[in-house]
Amino acid sequence: MLIAYASKTGNVARFVAKLGYPTLRIESGRERITHPCVLVTYTTGFGQVPPEVRAFAQAHRRFIRGVAASGNRSWGPNFARAADTLSELLGVPVLLKFELSGWPEDTERFRQILSTLEEK
Ligand SMILES: Cc1cc2nc3c(=O)[nH]c(=O)nc-3n(C[C@H](O)[C@H](O)[C@H](O)COP(=O)(O)O)c2cc1C
Predict the structure, then answer these.
(1) Of all protein residues, whose CA lies closest to atom 1 belonging to ligand 1?
(2) How do residues 58-91 score in pLDDT, each as one tens digit?
(3) Which one of 7, 27, 42, 53 would you pick to mutate in the ligand 1 pocket, going by the greatest count of ligand atoms within 8 A of its CB?
(4) Could you give the 3-state DSSP secondary structure of residue 98?
């Protein structure tokens, strides 16, 4: 499974690098894919989806099987809320919310989720 991801300050990039799956970094939002993927993003000001991620998601909704988001718990109810917004927009599940570049448990859990998705 391809992991399409966006990372502004490096946390999401570090998280996905630990997983051992092929990745595509979203920078402009105009990147193109032709295969199923999961989408992993950071959360920006007050629980928002980064604009480049929204553009990518809207252009590729048929390929996106699930979403995950990084955030910081200090944002309270807006913690990793980009995942909820994308989930609603695309009609796909929130696979994971994780802090910064993720704890080892997050890496393990996400690997398991990815392997389950690949069986489908
Ligand atoms: C301007 C700004 C706004 C942020 N807003 C949120 C937020 O609303 N909710 C949240 O959970 N994290 C928020 N964060 C934290 C980032 O989502 C978090 O640090 C994430 O790991 C960044 O990923 P990256 O290093 O891959 O860019 C914000 C960070 C910045 C700099």
Answers:
(1) 45
(2) 999 999 999 999 999 999 999 999 999 999 999 9
(3) 42
(4) strand
Residue 30 structure tokens = 């105009």
CA torsion sign, 13 to 19 to 98 to 118? Answer: positive
DSSP 15-54: HHHTTTS-EEE-SSS-----S-EEEEEE-BGGGBPPHHHH
CATH of 2-119, one of 1.10.940.10, 3.40.50.360, 3.10.150.10, 3.30.1240.10: 3.40.50.360
Check pocket membership of 17 for ligand 1, CB cut-off 6 A. Answer: no
Residue pLDDT, tens place only, 8-27: 999 999 999 999 999 999 99
Task: Provide the phi-psi class of 37: left if phi over 0, else alpha when psi is between -120 and 50, else beta.
Answer: beta
Cα 44 to Cα 7, 18, 32, 71: the distances in Å are 11, 22, 23, 8
**Any ligand 1 atom below 6 A from CB of 23:** no
